[in-house]
Amino acid sequence: MAELKLLARRIFQETISAIDISEAMQRKLRLDGTVLRLNDAEVDLRAFANVRVIAIGKAAHAMVEGLASLLGGEFRFNGVVSAPTPPLLAVGGMTYFVGGHPTPDEQSWKAAEAILALLTECDEKTVVFFLLSGGGSALVELPLDGRQTLEDVRQLHRALVTCGAPIEAMNTVRKHVSAVKGGRLAAAAVSTTKITLAVSDVPAGKESALASGPTLPDPTTVADVQRVAEEFALREKFPASLLRWMDEGRMPETPKEGDAAFANAHFSLLLGLDDLFHPAHHTTEAKGFVACCDNTTDDWPVEKAAEYLLAQLEDIRRANPGQRVAVIADGEVSSPVRGKGIGGRNAAFVLACVKKIAGKKIAVLSAGTDGLDGNSPAAGAVADGETLERGRAIGLNARFMFRESDSYTYFARLGDTIITGPTGNNLRDLRILLAEGKEKKQKKSN
Fold this sequence. Notes:
Layout: H1 2-18, H2 21-28, E1 30-32, E2 35-37, E3 42-44, E4 50-56, H3 60-71, E5 78-83, E6 94-98, H4 106-120, E7 126-133, H5 136-139, H6 150-161, H7 167-177, H8 184-187, E8 193-199, H9 222-231, H10 240-247, E9 265-271, H11 273-286, E10 290-294, H12 302-319, E11 325-330, H13 345-354, E12 362-368, E13 380-384, H14 387-393, H15 398-403, H16 407-414, E14 417-418, E15 429-435
Parallel strand pairs: 4-5, 4-7, 5-6, 7-8, 8-9, 10-11
Antiparallel strand pairs: 1-2, 2-3, 11-15, 12-13, 12-15, 13-14
């Protein structure tokens, strides 16, 4: 069974290595002379006196480098970058901030102020590239209500990321309380031509949730904010200043479809779901597995997702006797923080599987493609049919540690964490379930 764990690790590592942001930018965009061709538009860069770049998210550095390579030396630009790590190689003309994640910090606040200041100087002779990727909601933040402090903002974000709400619900709240989310960066430069390029960690069709949609029309409403707050018992966790602002009816609506802010705006998805599934599926089959991709469990509670995906694995196993089989899944499962342990939704998913796969020739891996999982230093974890007994042998209680949100500690003690460090990318979480094939039934001889 140890071999299955090793194969799961290799599949994850090879999948991450296959995702190249600069290559994707060269493939999805084309610069013919001075004309930039996007999926839905053509923009002649020669028509603009100024080119500005605003990069927000975990993939910000790679996206800036990719854009600089695409544009070459002919189109000089300057702008602002906010990422969770400093750049290995700074691009000339860019001002860099190392923002907080998953909770905004002083650098997140200063980055927001710098971006808004930059946009106020933009006019119809300016084209702005917005380079967005996952994690942007925390890396750039400034409240709409000037009475709210940085600590108020931090309290709000902590409440959201630990309440178990899906990302879309969390971002519904973030968009309506922020000066830089929910289309408000687009609104800050109404007459400017805006090009948003995205590396998405949100479900297809919900791109306005990426980095809380700073440049896209917001389909959610103030009423939705109230509903989310009630459904996830958030009012008791919100800062008092935010509650007063909400209850006084001062929360304005976000810009919607048809707003003038989006008249000269273009959006292009550089990397999304398929760009994660394709290399994962190819790599898994190249290692001798019959593989199927499944994104059904996106936003499901972690234990329900574990039950479903293991059942899918068993179905494929029965349908392919004698062959190794695999299920590849993506998306984010819901894993509310209930204890004071160390971990995240990926290690929690694997821990939820440990008892279910005990004694079976199955391995389960779940990890974040950004290299991060909750409040742990790992990207996720891997387990197999021997993990439960190995844990018991050194005094680990899987059920208790799951309940205490201490999944990282469980797997760290066993040497089964996935450690990559920040990958500079963010294409959702990846789950890999592998199983040895069932033996074919022998026909009875007469």
